[in-house]
Here is the input.
Amino acid sequence: MAEHVAVTTDEHGVATIRLDRAPVNALNPQVWSELGEAAITCSTDDGIAAVVLWGGPKVFAAGADIKAMNAMTFQELFASGGGLQEAVKALARIPKVMIAAINGYALGGGCELALTADFRYAADNAQLGQPEIKLGIIPGAGGTQRLTRLVGISKAKQMVYGGEFYAASDALAMGLVDEVLPPDEVYGAAVEAARGYAKGPFALRMAKKAIDEGVEMDLDSALRLETTLFTATFATDDRRIGMDSFVEHGPGQATFTRN
Ligand code: CAA
Here is the structure.
């Protein structure tokens, strides 16, 4: 039974991965491992159609546990096999829409955790950043890569080289977050949006794969991937449901089965 990461699923098929390690949800090796298990649950449980990643009402996550890291030798860190990186990869690969709901700090590994989601909804008092440089290290869970792909090279360099904290409004302006909301509305808004995606067709999984994998390829290869997945949508029940519904009732009326 996980101690710091809980997965609960509501009646609409929306799972919440809730991080809970007081006081700041610092990510120690146990949390890395529990996050990896949560990612597997969300990926494989057919009852889960969309996911919200939340650190609770006070703080999303202040990053890797600096005290735990400080006590580690190079050999111990190396032997841990990039544990946080692996957990973060597993989260990024959940083949369902995931929204990060950010209250308070999302720093270092916490910001990198949020970057694994498709969308980030932030409280207007949230602060995001990659302050690792101030510890004499660099981001180690995707902060030099996912962040750069999201906000561009210059903004990522500014964040990583400077290590400053960014207000939610600044994060919105640079495309790091997608919505800024009053703190007590962030989680609810993320769940509501996830419920919308949970009603979507199986094709949402294919769209996510096409975008996330395609962006790593040269254009021709990515377009071939797109063609393959586009064609594959014709193997789904939802494609038939969607098109029949359009022909009979007009646009936007289909009720999908996610098959
Ligand atoms: N790891 C371990 N403990 C942490 C922590 C972290 N990342 N962040 C905060 N804490 C602890 C503090 O040491 C403090 O503990 P005590 O009460 O035992 O002293 C407690 O949480 C509360 O913190 P503060 O007293 O500092 O509270 P604050 O409100 O003044 O500041 C904060 C909060 C802005 C989050 C500040 O604590 C801070 O800057 N934390 C570090 C953020 C950081 O550098 N994150 C990057 C970590 S490295 C990383 O993530 C590597 C990677 O890419 C994988």
Observations:
- The mean pLDDT is 97.
- The chain is about 45% helix and 15% strand.
- The first strand starts at residue 5 and ends at 9.
- The CA atoms of residues 30 and 76 lie 14 Å apart.
